[in-house]
Write a structure and sequence with these properties.
alpha+beta; 6-stranded antiparallel β-sheet; two-stranded antiparallel ribbon; about 35% helix; binds adenosine-5'-diphosphate; Protein kinase domain-containing protein
Length: about 325
């Protein structure tokens, strides 16, 4: 799995939450088969299959005993090895719990049980856009349009509430049973309310391939919600081509390409996708080194890429398209 991950460039920057030994330990210890909420009229969940593992959490399916509804249960050890990780998790819970939108993973509740915190989330049974691109190599234009439109709606909602996600990448775009995008993993999210807040936001965070130039350059005086628009440009490029635009062997090389805005579109013969100029123009609008000049989600959805003469946007997607290019009827 590792080499492909590197190719897709979805690994976090080395300065952010390293894979902790406790996370792997966590995965090694099987979770309890039943967990209960602490209140008097406590709900019980039976823990099912393993869903995935992140920097510090492990996810399992969890079935609510009362009605059989299935959720994703994110399990995090209450005692974290680093204070910083604990703080991050607290921010994640604080921000994510206030979000409610059709294209954002729904947060239901969080509670402590034995030595762990359990976060009850909407289950996304169809993996992530990253898994899909890995299997398919690249996505068709109608699929890219549909995902971008949904992504813009979710990001618009976040930005209106002064939230910057700061880690938008294909691996954090989960897919529900109807193949709708669900933005997840709020581990790096932050509230940015004012210019003063923006100036304080100068910690290096995110995933190298998706990181905006102003995050790399502390002298630029912090960053704003516009970092997410840069990531949208990277995501759009990667869905169309199968690899992120600033892909390189080392983190330093990636950062150099980001600062110099060095990226090339594949030649038509190398790529199974025909990529229209409208798509290239949209990506280049998002990948603007000057953050204020990047479009807002509302501008993006008005872009000609979404209303080209043959630019259909599918109303439904079959989950089979995780593995095979859909045939449009
Ligand atoms: P971390 O915060 O530690 O990075 P993530 O939130 O990325 O953890 O979750 C780890 C993994 O668990 C994901 O890569 C994915 O495979 C799985 N996962 C997370 N949330 C969901 C969900 N809502 N539905 C299904 N699987 C999920």
């Amino acid at each position: 799995k590792a080499p492909m991950d590197r190719k897709m460039g979805d690994k976090p920057a080395t300065t952010t939450a390293p894979k902790s030994s406790s996370a792997s330990k966590n995965h090694a210890d099987p979770p309890p088969s039943v967990v209960t909420e602490p209140e008097e009229d406590a709900e019980r969940y039976s823990i099912g299959g393993f869903l995935g593992k992140g920097g510090f959490a492990v996810c399992y399916e969890g079935t609510l005993a009362r009605n059989g509804r299935v959720f994703a249960m994110k399990v995090v050890k209450s005692q974290m090895p680093q204070k910083k990780m604990e703080e991050k998790f607290r921010t994640e819970l604080q921000i994510h719990s206030k979000m409610r939108h059709p294209f954002i993973v729904q947060f239901y509740r969080a509670f402590a049980f034995e030595q762990s915190t359990y976060v009850v989330l909407e289950l996304c049974p169809n993996g992530s856009v990253m898994d899909m691109v890995r299997k398919r190599r690249c996505l068709s234009l109608p699929e890219v349009r549909r995902f971008m439109i949904q992504l813009c709606a979710g990001v618009k909602y976040l930005h209106k509430r002064f939230v910057a996600h700061r880690d938008l990448k294909m691996g954090n775009l989960f897919l529900d049973r109807n193949m709708n995008i669900k933005i997840g993993d709020f581990g790096l999210a932050a509230m940015i309310l004012s210019d003063k807040d923006a100036k304080r936001r100068n910690t290096l965070c995110g995933t190298p391939n998706y990181i905006a130039p102003e995050v790399l350059d502390k002298s630029k005086g912090g960053h704003t919600q516009k970092v997410d628009i840069w990531s949208l440009g990277v995501i759009c490029f990667a869905m169309l081509t199968g690899y992120p635009p600033f892909q390189s062997k080392t983190q330093e090389e990636i950062y150099k390409k980001v600062r110099n805005l060095t990226y090339v579109w594949p030649k038509e013969s190398e790529n199974s996708n025909f990529i229209p100029d409208e798509a290239k123009d949209l990506v280049s609008a998002c990948l603007n080194l000057v953050d204020e000049e990047r479009p807002d989600p509302d501008d993006i959805v008005e872009h000609p890429f979404f209303n080209m003469y043959d630019g259909c946007i599918p109303r439904q997607l079959d989950p089979a398209c995780r593995f095979n290019k859909p045939i449009w009827l």
